[in-house]
Amino acid sequence: MFVDQKVAGFSGNFRQFKKQLKKARPTIVSALTTKMPEVNTHLQEVYPDNVSHEHGVLCMSARRDSIIMWGHYCDSHRGMVIGFDAGWEIFQQPIKGLRKVNYVRERVLWNTSWAPGGSKERAYSEQLIFSKNDEWKYECELRQLFTLSGLPQRILENGSKGYFLPIPPKVIVSVSLGMRCSRELEERVRSILRNARFSHVKLDRARLHDHDFALEFDTIQTEILRLRTRGQT
Questions:
Q1: How confident is the model at residue 9, as a pLDDT?
Q2: Which of 2, 39, 132, 169 is the most exposed place for a label (fewest CB within 10 A)?
Q3: Alpha helices in 53-133 (DSSP H)
Q4: How far apart are CA 32 and CA 16, in angstroms?
């Protein structure tokens, strides 16, 4: 038993459709071949956005002394840099742990001949996430991929959805203030670090080297807030 159907101008049974398709194959292949460069270009543009719907990337650095990065990411040396313990178990996951970025000259390109979900497509996704133009290599960037659905969420002030990674106090090992950091920000940081949970955190401030274009860091002493209860001296 079969049902005749009309699809895209064809009326007949499946056997007749296969016969007609075989006859038209050279024409179809030729048309697809002509369109492939356009399809590839389109995929290069939309693939990162598609990945971003389900995954997020944590971006960090292995250094804190880059003058350029202080200018880019720390409010022109008025902000601060927080140091994390590289041994944190989240960073040390066997497959999805924190990894160094590979700095390259050529872009990572998509190939439409790859099987969807196959090993080549997975390798492409990994290269795309962990590759960056080598002009950025001074950043010594580290990245880690997370599945967004497994992270705590909340709506941000601009109305977009934010995803967060809970960080235990013991993982924070240092805070470095910028050389243009305001007194107000320094006092706020000092106040937070007086909490006993942060007694292990090292606080310092960046300053410009005396004669080189480089940063040095001077330790700042902090006082731990000691809580007293009735009966204690």
A1: 61
A2: 2
A3: 67-73, 119-129
A4: 23
Strand (E) or helix (H) holding 5: strand 5-7
pLDDT exceeds 80 at position 6: no
Q: What type of residue sits at position 168?
A: P
Pair 88, 171: CB distance under 8 Å = yes
Residue range 118-136: mean pLDDT, rounded: 88
Other Cβ atoms less than 10 A from the Cβ of 203: the count is 19
Residue 98: which of 202, 171, 203, 169 has the closest Cα?
171
- DSSP letters of 134-170? GGGGGG-EEEEEEEGGGS-EEE-TTS-EEE-----GG
Spatial distance between the Cα atoms of 89 and 170, rounded to a whole number of angstroms: 12
Token pair in block for residue 137: 């290599």
- Enumerate the domain spans of the chain: 54-219
| CA-wise closest residue to 137 among 105, 179, 163 | 105
pLDDT digits (tens, 9 = 90+) for 47-99: 667 777 888 999 999 999 999 999 999 999 999 999 999 999 999 998 889 99
Tokens of residue 44, six digits? 């290069």
CA 100 to chain centre: 12
